[in-house]
UniProtKB/TrEMBL annotation:
Claim: Oxidoreductase is one of the keywords in the record: yes
Protein name: Uncharacterized protein
InterPro entries linked to this entry: NAD(P)-bd_dom_sf, Sc_DH/Rdtase_CS, SDR_fam
GO molecular function annotation: oxidoreductase activity
Organism: Carnegiea gigantea
PROSITE patterns the UniProt entry points to: ADH_SHORT
Keywords for this protein: Oxidoreductase
Origin: domain of life: Eukaryota
Higher taxonomy: Eukaryota, Viridiplantae, Streptophyta, Embryophyta, Tracheophyta
One protein family per Pfam: adh_short_C2
Protein family: Belongs to the short-chain dehydrogenases/reductases (SDR) family.
Gene3D superfamilies: NAD(P)-binding Rossmann-like Domain
Amino acid sequence: MEFNGAVSNDGQRLKGKVAIVTGGARGIGAATAKLFALNGAHVIVADILDDLGRSLANSIGGRYIHCDVCKEADVESAVKLALAWKGRLDIILNNAGISGANGSITNAKMDQMQSILSVNLFGVVHGIKHAARAMIEGKIRGSIICTSSSAALVGGLASHAYTMSKEAIIGLMRSTACELGVHGIRVNCVSPHGVPSEMLLDGYRRFLGDIGYEEVSKIVAEKASLLNGRGGSVEDIAYAALFLASDEAGFITGHNLIIDGGYTAANSSMRHMYLD
């Protein structure tokens, strides 16, 4: 089992913990599932991409379950699998998401917007609900992590439906952190920006045609980072999720961890002012 990135060698940050990763078959989810397993976690990959998900789960010594997060029963089944397999649930990364419903608000198709919300927002609601139930019943001081986006922080980065869903996740995270903290359960978000993944690649291809990962990575590095051409990767997001899942983040809850190379913090076009 390999992981592309600067891996910590201790391999024990999640030793013995049980984790579910929704949308875990590829992209950010797959990178996180691998990193969690490398750090000692027992990982359930939950996705609708059965072949990819099953192959990944087998490669990391985990389990796979078909899970359409729009369906509450599917998410509940993933939690039940964790309890049947290892008797507990310590971590869930509510990562499954889709993009789409592009175009003007004046021509918005409500069925398309509803589809985005069903996956991106209500899928997260299902994950928090059933993970929290299992953690409370098991007296587990667990970690619930939700994937939001820089699109929740800066307008114009994505479709209206996607933007709405990702900003709502941050509000939901803060609200549930208030409720669940009394049980010792932490709820946080990771918010990536411009990470070359299958979903981002699909988005670029809608506008630029047959473009590859290297080209997308170059565009992101040049346009969406303060770090001198250093773009983000799915592994960057996985490391952020690992931190929030670990006991090292034991006093962090209600927090949105932005992984964007500084994009949302400052205007990169002003850098020339500081150069001699």
